[in-house]
Amino acid sequence: MAKVELRDVWKKFGNVEVIKGVSIDLDDGEFVVLVGPSGCGKSTLLNLIAGLETLTSGEIRIGDTLVNDVPPKDRNIAMVFQSYALYPTKTVEENITFGMQTRGVDRAVQDKALADVSQLLHIEQLLDRKPGQLSGGQRQRVAMGRALVRNPDVFLFDEPLSNLDAKLRIEMRTEVKKLHLRLGKTIVYVTHDQIEAMTLASRIAVMDNGHVRQFGTPEEIYENPVDLFVAGFMGSPSMNIVKGKVVNEDGYAIAVTDEEGTIRFPLGPEQAAKVKGLEGEEIHLGLRPETITHVGAHGAPQSDLFVFERAVDVVEPTGPDTMLVFTLGGMEAIARVRPEERVKPGETFRFEVNMGKAKLFDGKTGMRL
Amino acid sequence: MNARSRRVAFDRFFERWLPQIVVSPMFAASLLFVYGFIAWTVYISFTKSGVMPNYTLIGLGQYERLWTTPRWFVAIENLFIFTSLFMICCMLIGLFLAILLDQRIRAEGMIRTIYLYPMALSFIVTGTAWKWILNPTLGIEKIIQGWGFPNFNFDWLVDPNMAIYTIVIAGVWQSSGYVMALFLAGLRSVDDEIIKAAAIDGAGPFRTYWSIILPIVRPVFFSAFVVLAHLAIKSFDLVMALTGGGPGYATDMPATFMYSFAFQRSELGTAAASAVMMLVTVTAIFIPYLYSELRRPAK
Amino acid sequence: MSKTATSGIVRPRGLRNTLLRLLLFAILGLFCLYYLMPLFVMISTSLKSLEEIRTSSLISLPKDVTFAAWEKAWSAACVGVRCTGLQPYFMNSILMVIPAVTISTLLGALNGYALTKWKFPGADIIFALMLFGSFIPFQVVLLPMARMLGYFGLAGSVYGLILVHTVYGLSFTTLFFRNFFVSVSDGIVHAAKIDGAGFFRIFFTLLLPMSLPTIVVAVIWQFTQIWNDFLFGVAFTVGDSNPVTVALNNIVASSTGVKEYNVDMAAAIIAALPTLLVYIVAGKYFVRGLAAGAVKG
Known about the structure:
By secondary structure, chain A is of the alpha+beta class. Helix content of chain A is 25%, strand content 35%. In chain A, β17 and β18 (331-337) form a beta hairpin.
């Protein structure tokens, strides 16, 4: 069994707390992505799992073994680094077999493992070259080969695609996913790119400032963010979050006021129930760009839809969609409409929003209501 | 052209050539004091100059004389012994200490300062100190005898066969810290992630250094080699302070040989020849290094 | 949790590793003793009386501390027939070092600037030729320099030494500054030119202030090299005009009368103090100089 359990893990560098009490359980065979902004501690957490950093307190178990004091080589893990960390003075072949050599593995076994892995990753012709002679994508594959050959229980990836150009990144992303399907091993993957997280993960751990804010499937994270941070971090372009007052005149609504006037976003019965008793209070209203679009687009029930008008500030065609930037609640908001809509900056546009997908957050704590 | 446009043209001309104008006096000085002087010395080495320079060429006479003087052979032999021992010991100690210091010690800064301070001293000071420490009756010999070894003898300083090794001892003490600093900088420049990868691959500290880190810092060996060779060939101060070239001329080196023939025995031609020999040796080591140094834009 | 394992790769805990760690500290400590020992011996010997030196061992602390040797070393030690101590020679060194360091640093900065920021054909060759000057064994220029100094009446004087050190220090300081200015973006100079600034204005108001760390490195390096020099001192000066290193060697090597080891040691420390102090105060820059000037001894 290769599940990974973290119990109340703390890590301090001197007096600086980098990981503040993380407890999560990763199931065997899962693809878990640790995602978050720079400095949130995701790489540190990965290093703690790998044994490349010592724990300040807490417990880490791999399989059922407590590995706090177990050195990396004995944890049955393999890691792919952001900079690939290939040994520059050794050939590709030596890079891949170095670990096996160190362990004293039988030569025949080494050769077979090398052959299997180079075939899988299409690096057979590169075996005699040194890392300096390889392209970024090739180096990445050699790094993966080195990890694969260890046949570990858990694979760790530390932002392995960050150093690749955009096109290559998408290709390799698919490769990684295929690898997971093929091997079925537990993978812990660190990235700052939330699109990578969404596409690759079976579960995502969104981290911020040493804490895991939410740990769930991509759908859960996207549709049911637990607080403002998670809601704002996941999704591109990010969720529009505006401040509004809870009003109850003729049904509950969120009144968003700014220079151009007040818009009352009506709430359905479920959401109304959440704000009962909060009349007059300020809360945050979250609307993803794809929920604000042109009239007639949504296939949602009529009762969820709400139409309002606003002047458009900037028009950004992206090809498959057009992004319209307008002002809401004194802030920039983005709506996603079909490219056929002809709008010019300054013109007023009729937006239709699916209030069924609206998210409400507490005005002070930022937690989801 | 009226006066004003002439003035402007002159200003432009001046401005355009200003960099060259600024550099040229110093360049000229360099040409004179380095190349001009070298040329003069080379010329003199082909003449019969004694106390005063004599500008009549006599071919390779001085070089023949040089290579038939026993004292010169002693100097060359000493140079060889000193240089090889000096370089090997400095490299070994320097590398060893650098690896030790690479292990994340708390007091690293202070220890580094201690290891490196001898480089701030003049070789004369170093020579003076070690001359006292290795003093045949009152120095180390006395200490060890005091520890219960009454027959212990340490008179290398006055023993013609062993004196050269005292210079090695003092020289290594002075310069090994520098080699350590070079290697430590090199070790630190190795990407952290490579070391982590090695740890996951199961390499212990010894294997990590031997198989991975040291091959990466190979260029530092080359740098250290060149620097130490240079230091060794130029050894003059240390020898003068520690042994004065003695006993007799048992610890003579090409540098002291040259000095002696130039300023004490006033045989300019032979002295010039020995200086030229030194130049040739240094150049042979330096041309490849200079070439690679100039290819890189800056450190 | 052991103190040393607060960070870094997890290493197997256990007796073997703890012992190895202890061994590490022991070896490092041993080498500290190795490097400090001569300094300790020098200081301790300089504070002993000759009596005590003869009877005690090299490494014992002085029983009766006396500064008599220091006084003698500074003002009364004899070099040949002159018994003035190190004092006048120390002053010679100061007189020699200050102008030589200042001039060679300033000119080196100017050179480095002109060669890198005002690319003219041959700039790189000129640099290479000037650089070579820092590699040569100085034996090869001693004779002609001695003659030239004699010809200009500078032989046997501190002024001659100033000239020598300035000239040969120039290739060094040029190297430092050239390496630094190469890393400064050309854009700054172009922008200044567009603003109408000329060669010297750009240098004095922009690039020189920017190069402060390099200036410090150059000054410290030059100071150390020139103060510690012996070869030029012994070849080009005589008697009164000797720098402190030559005087020290003369005091120690004098074979007349009783060898006063304590005076020798005190004299050595006096000669070493300036560069040692510079090192302790500005060690960081010293190391940078060592790295940049990795070719000169």
